Each structure stands twice: as C-alpha cells, then as structure tokens.
Amino acid sequence: MTKTGFYQRILFNKFFKLSLILLLFIIFIYFLYRLNVFNLVDSNYKEFWLKVKQLFSFGSFDNELPGQNLWLFNLKLLWTSIKNILLATSVAFIFALFISFLNASILFKKPYLSWITRTISLLLRAFPVIVMLLFFKWFIVNNHLKAFIIYFWFTWLFILRNLNDIINTSSITKYWHFRYLGNSFVKSIKNTIILPNINRYIMLFFYSLESNLRWSTILIYVGINGIGFYFQYDDFQYLGISILYIMITIFSFELLLYFINNYLNKGAQIKTKKQTIYPNIKKITKILIIFLLSIFLIYLLIDLILNLINSNNPNINIKALEIFFKRFFILDFSSINNNPDIYLIYITIFMQVYCAIYIALFSAIIYVFVMNNKLNKPFNIIFWKLILSILKALPTILIFKLLNPLFSTSFALVLALSFSSFRKITKHLNELVNSLTQSKIDFLKGKRINNFIIYYKFILKEAIFKLFIILFFEFENSFRNAMTYSVFVGSGLDLIINKYQQENQFGKIIPLILPAYLLFILFELIYLAVVNQWILLLKNTIFTYFSKVKLKLIKNKNQ
Description:
Layout: H1 3-34, H2 45-55, H3 70-103, H4 112-125, H5 129-139, H6 143-168, H7 172-180, H8 185-194, H9 198-219, H10 239-264, H11 277-310, H12 318-327, H13 334-338, H14 344-371, H15 378-393, H16 396-403, H17 409-434, H18 438-446, H19 451-460, H20 464-484, H21 486-489, H22 493-502, H23 509-531, H24 534-558
Helix pairs in contact: 1-14, 3-4, 3-6, 3-9, 3-10, 5-6, 5-22, 6-9, 7-8, 9-10, 14-17, 14-20, 16-17, 17-20
C-alpha cells in the first residue's frame, strides 16, 4: 500500500466512524421528537419536590391502617417477600441448573435431547413478560401459589442464559477427559464445571435474589403482597420505609456474597500456627450455612403446601384455565385486520428503548471512567462505587414515579428504562476495563498518556465488539421491561390483553403480541449464533469454499 493510500484509508475510517456516530445521534434526536419530548409540558416541580420530601419523611402511621406502626408493618411485608423470593428462587435456580446441562449439546455425544430442551426453552423465554404476568394473575387464585409460580417462572427462564454462558466458557476438554477416564456425567460436571465456577454460580443466585426483590415492587399490581405494597399508591410519605428496607436487604446480600467469595471460597491465606485448623473452620461454616438454608427452605416449602391444603378457596381457576387452552391457540386476527395500527405500539416501544439505551451508554461510559479503580484515586473509587451501590438498590418504578411530574409520561419511562440499563451496562463495562492489566496501564501512564486517552483508545476501542454484544442484549431486556411497564404508562398493551382475557377472547392475544414474540425469538437465535460462533464458522466455510474454487480455476487455466 502506498503512503497516499494509507492516509486515504485512515481518513475513510475516521469519516465512516464520525458519520455513524452522527447518524445514531440524529436518530436519537428524531425519536425524542416523535416521543413528544420537546413539546412543552407543564413540569410540576412542586409535586416533584413534594414527593422527594415525602420520601425522606418516613411516615410511621397510615390513616388507612389505624393502630399500625409502619416500621413493623413494612418489616412484616419484607419478611413475606423474602420468604416467597427465597423459596421460589432456590427451586428455580436448581431447576434452571438442571436444564442448562441438558441444553449444553457440547456435553453429549448425541445431543438430540439438548436440541429439544433448548428449543422449548427458547420458545418459552420469547413470551413477553406482561402476557405471563396477566396469565398468572387471572388463573391462579391463591396468592401464595401465585407468588411462588411467578418468581419461579421468571427466575429460571431469565437466569438460564447466564447458566448456559458459564458452561460455554468452561473447559470442555477437561470435562471430556473426565468422561473418558470412566467418570459419570454428574461427577464430571461437578469437577470440571460447577466447582471451578462456584463463585459465578453463587453470584448469579444472589443477583437473582436482588432482582426479584426489586421486582416485588411491580408484582403488587398483579396481587402479590409484599414489600411493594405502597408502590401501588402515589402517596410517597409511606414509601420511604419500604425503600430503606429494600436497600438494607440488598446491601446485606452484597455483604454476604462478599463474605462467601472472599472468605469461604478462597484458600487459606493467613499463615499462623493454626493454619491446619483454618480450612476446617471454613468447611464447617460452609456445611452449617448449607444445613441452615436447607432447613429453612424445607420449612418454607411445607408452609406453602399446608397453605394450599388448608385454603378454603380453590387454588387455581380450573374452569377458566380450560377455556383459555381451548381458545388460546386458535388464532384470531380479526382485531388486527380491523385495526392494524395497533402494531404501532411496538414502534413507540422501539423508539423508547433506543433512546433509553443511548442515554444509558453515554452515562455508563462517563461513570466507569470516574469510578474504575485502575484509573482513579482510592477516595474517588469508594465514593462513586457507593453511589452505584445505592442506585442498584433503587427499584426502577420509583424513578419513573419520581420523574413523571417533571416530564411527559413517555419520556419519564425512557429515563426509567435508561436508569435500569445504566446499572447493567456500567457493571459490564467496568469488568471490561478491569480486564486490562495494571502493568499495561502503568506503562501507558509512564509515557505521560492521560487517563482519558488510555480509557478511550486502549480500553473502549479494544472492547468495542464486546460492548456491542452487551448493548444488543441489553436492548432485548429493555424492550421486555418497556412492555411490562406499560401497566404504569397506559400504552394500551396491557389494557388490550386484559380486555381479551375478560371477554374470553384468548385467541386474539398471540396475534397482538406476535411482533414482540418473533423479535424475541430473533434475539435468542442471534444469541445462539454469537455463543456458538456460527457467524465465524459460516465465514470460514464460505472462505474455504471460494479458496478451493479459486485454486481449481488457477489449475484449469495452467492446464
């Protein structure tokens, strides 16, 4: 390549990147315009500040609950939520763990069963959350059973992808080595997948608990009692105690996770005369924790069973369920044919999600730069990580309710979705930054390269493909959340599904959700393509094919 050609290529690459950035920004501004963000609205600052003041007032007495101390009342609600969440999450985690091993075709010589279980999992996971929530709300009468099934259902489906990722990133060579030595399937996965990744499994379990606790603030809308009780009202003076309890519980989960990862699951690091006793103490502690947790879970399971047995009312509306399954799969497109504009709801949701991800990405990039421990001073790191921990503990619905007086309902939802995405993108982006070795950073600093240039040129640019994958799947999560939060913003989707259910027109539900369902299936297929490197395999296959064709043509020409 000539010197002129080299510079032309650089200029072309810069022009392409700048054009792409400008195009994405123009799309962002256009979507904000379509969402009526720039239309002047009467921002009610007084109502906003009133809600903030009420949130920190920690009102202890509610006129609707005479004689009740709200600190004790919320503590009882929290206990109810923790019991429901712990039992359902534990059972769901074990079930999802079992399914994840069945899904892993790389663990079997004949993976026919894996293809079946993976296909079923894919089709179930593609169902929009809002549909399943309303389904369980309508047909499960007993609130204890409803809470268990809803937490169980969404936990096992949505951690299954993470569990699959753990298997895909494990050493499969070691697994097959164990198998060829005559070890059983269970013993092989225990020694080569579960034990080497035990911290990741534990972290995922605690993440599920935290996520479900935040979800409890939404599930009150489908009749599940718990710490989300006061989120169904707009009166913020009683909400502060609920938020405080949620934050304390999530911080407690974080501390317990830190203790397990940094004490129980690490080798003995203290060299003392009691060095031989130290591992035994850890082993006893582990056994004690597992034993106590098992006893508590058995108690919760027995309590649930007894509640179902002693219930005066039927636990499930069998008659309504029979009608549902008779009509649900008989697709009725009459409403769509009469009013095809109903599908425009998904265009609105797409624009909201795009804007939310755009805001979240740039916020996360800035936040990680000031928070990361490899680029900043310890005091700054502690301060920004503390702020992030507080933000992680706040339910997304709280952000929406706070911001709704200031902005249009549509833009308040965008900001709430961006808040949720910001936390996840920040976590993943920070992990990417930490993947750069400290010695390399010190080397670059020694060349007097400032932190921002290191961050931009040597971290973000290197991690651009991984960051794109993170954003792609966060787009899917935000799209699901936007559909779920339609309960609060009145986008019409939940109202229409509710109407169909009340009128027993179940055949109209699938046509209504069909665009979202197909989109989520597409997301799942793209995920499988990325994980299994199908695109790379296709590229190599095409390259090999054309190389052979080229060689054949050259041989024929020479002859």
